[in-house]
Amino acid sequence: MSNPFHSAYLRGSFGSFAADMRKMINAPEMSDVKFIVGEEQKVVYAHRCILAYRCEAFRTMFAQRVLSRDAKEAEVPFVLSDVQPDVFLAVVEFLYTNCVMLSRDIALDVLTSAVEYGLDELQRMCVDYINSTLTVESACEALQAAVTYRQTNMKDKCLAFIEGHTKSDMLTIDEPDLINFVREWAHVNSVVLDKPVPEIAKDVICELRLFLLSPEELTILEAENKKDNLIPMDKIAEVWKFHALKKPSGIAAHLPRRRKGTRLREHHKYLNFYHK
Questions:
Q1: Rounded-to-integer distance, Cα 164 and Cα 222, Å
Q2: How many CB atoms lie within 10 A of CB 149?
Q3: What is the average pLDDT value for the chain, to the nearest integer?
Q4: Res. 70: pLDDT tops 60
């Protein structure tokens, strides 16, 4: 027969709890520790017990002050000059509420802080956000962060994003910028995988639309290419041939086609296949 008086573990409203905890973030009232954050030396107020019991790094930081016999030293604010205030406040928000407000402007930096403070759940949240908001402009930097912090899932997402978007007509980027992003991506992975840059990039390079480049841009690309052999010389020679004859021939139909973000150039009038 079951006991009608057995114990039960009941949960209250997490939303209201988080909302109440959020009121304590950077609130001077009843705070017992101050941080001077960033180059602008923004003052951030906090509560030692919350930070210490939520994060081992803060526990260690505060313990060092407790061991000090100098009472005045114990009251001195902690100076964190190498982190942006918005980034630090995002970390504090997570520690107080187990939630965080992220944006593209701070997500990578919050990930860096999460790694430094050993906050695994915050790392996961940052990675999920970054993976879901990748752009052509952010993908290479995100890839570098993924490699640095050994975030395999994020690295795979960035690689797939970069490879996939080199094939798209709807990509809102000009080709020289795309080439630069691919070059950055190839160099990062060359180091990680210990393979030559041309080998890393070979499947992506065939999707770059070099025919969209002006002769001046092609000259610059050729000079850069001498440093890493990113692009096979026969592909560059094909483009020079086009500029001489004003007629692309014997190539895949999409390679002379403008993307959505392609800046119009004089020679594009000789390319019959372009995005409108």
A1: 25
A2: 18
A3: 88
A4: no
